[in-house]
Amino acid sequence: MQPPELIDDEEQWEVEEIVDKVKNKEGVWYKVKWTGWGDIYNEWVPEEELDKAPALKRKYEQQPARMRKRNKR
What is known about its subunit structure (predicted)? Predict the structure, then answer.
């Protein structure tokens, strides 16, 4: 498993892809697959934590809904 990068003394994990999305009263959350980690470690993160990953969000949103459902891990 790949360790996080340290940037300004903070751990930074790289997102490989977004596999799901949900909107609720707390906001928008994305389920992400971390680079170098198995699917068991996929995790829900708030949209604000993906502010440096606009290309991944665009890629996920451009998939047809049926593909997004098929790609869930």
Answer: Component of the NuA4 histone acetyltransferase complex.
Cα angle 49-16-38, degrees, rounded to a multiple of 5: 110
pTM score: 0.76
Chain position carrying tokens 């790609």: 71
- 3-class SS of residue 34: strand
Distances from the Cα of 70 to the Cα of 10, 27, 29, angstroms:
34, 24, 18
pLDDT digits (tens, 9 = 90+) for 14-56: 899 999 999 999 999 999 999 988 999 999 999 999 998 999 9
